[in-house]
Structure to design on (158 residues):
């Protein structure tokens, strides 16, 4: 990862299906602004589903307007050429690709392990979690185990 251990790391997770997409993007940008982030920022993004797409666009806008030194990082669940080739167009939106040390994880659990890695390596988790099941809930639950992780659930703010 291009950032250092001193960079602020912000991860995102949320459900694939939701409404009020434009409003949600505005809420993410507004939340990022309200945090008064001074240090270099690393945005950890999963790149799947509707919330990840909304988060990416919000981070792009925030980076462009407020923190050009920020880094948009796609945290990949897989590390193989075929996978990257199939996602090559989508990956051009990111500054960097990170592959966490999960290579011994069976492929069907790779996304869950990647999400766990994101929850364990972020300072702030911005999420949209309404359900008590699924990958987003699992990631939120993992982040809640950490004392120093600030969590903002946008589903609670609607």
């Amino acid at each position: 990862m291009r950032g250092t251990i001193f960079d602020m790391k912000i991860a995102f997770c949320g459900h694939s299906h939701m409404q009020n997409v434009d409003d949600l993007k505005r809420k993410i940008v507004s939340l990022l602004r309200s945090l008064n982030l001074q240090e270099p920022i690393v945005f950890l993004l999963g790149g799947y589903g509707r919330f990840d797409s909304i988060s990416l666009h919000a981070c792009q806008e925030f980076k462009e307007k407020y923190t050009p030194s920020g880094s948009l990082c796609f945290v990949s669940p897989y590390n193989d050429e075929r996978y990257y080739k199939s996602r090559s167009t989508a990956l051009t939106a990111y500054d960097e690709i990170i592959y966490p040390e999960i290579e011994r994880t069976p492929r069907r659990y790779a996304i869950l392990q990647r999400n766990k890695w994101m929850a364990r390596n972020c300072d702030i988790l911005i999420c949209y979690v309404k359900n008590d099941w699924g990958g987003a809930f699992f990631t939120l639950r993992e982040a809640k185990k950490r004392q120093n992780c600030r969590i903002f659930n946008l589903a609670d703010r609607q």
In short: The chain has one domain: 8-157. The mean pLDDT is 91.
